[in-house]
Amino acid sequence: MNLVMKGSGLFEMYIKKYDVDKKVIVAVCDSNIIGKKFKEGNLVLKLDESFYKGEQGNEEEVKEALSCATIANIAGERSIACAVECGCIDPDNIIFIDGIPHAQMVQI
User: Fold this and answer.
1) Is residue 23 included in any domain, yes or no?
2) Strand, helix or coil at 2?
3) Closest CA to 60 of 82, 78, 77
4) Residue 77 to residues 59, 83, 101: CA-CA distances in angstroms?
5) Model confidence over 11-66: pLDDT tens digits?
6) 78 within a domain of the structure (yes/no)
7) How far is CA 9 from the centre of its chain?
8) Helix axis angle, 59-67 relative to 77-85, nearest 10°?
9) In this structure, what is the dihedral angle of CA atoms 82, 85, 90, 96, given to the nearest 10 degrees?
10) Are the C-beta atoms of residues 66 and 72 closer than 8 Å to each other?
11) Strand, coil or helix: what is 40?
């Protein structure tokens, strides 16, 4: 697992951007859970590399990408923390699936 340490240059999140019909979709996922599948009851969180694995990013890059998003899918503790810190996600809208935090954002 890669660890982000201030000023270290190491990354622990992936950012992938999609431009679709004048909308910017951003997928952000912690690197230690990408490619995994989590289940809890009827809920399934499948973190496919094909959807989430783009460029590696640090906290500032994640916050910048999310601030430009019209739609976002965010998974993992570090990624969710960045989304909350930049105001893209309200903590009350975070769900947990098998202990993994996940949230979606849509700007109307």
Assistant:
1) yes
2) coil
3) 82
4) 12, 10, 6
5) 699 999 999 999 999 999 999 999 999 999 999 999 999 999 999 999 999 999 99
6) yes
7) 19
8) 60
9) 40
10) yes
11) strand
Classify 47 as helix, strand or coil.
coil
**In the block, residue with structure tokens 């590696």:** 56
* The model scores a pTM over 0.90: no
State which residues form the domain around 98. Answer: 13-106
Query: DSSP state, 91?
Result: G
- Judge whether 5 lies within some domain: no
Quick check: is 6 in a domain?
no
Provide the domain count of the chain: 1
User: Coil, helix or strand for 63?
Assistant: helix
- Polymer length in residues for the chain: 108
Q: Which two tokens stand for residue 98?
A: 């098998």
The CATH number of the domain holding residue 67 is 3.30.1860.10
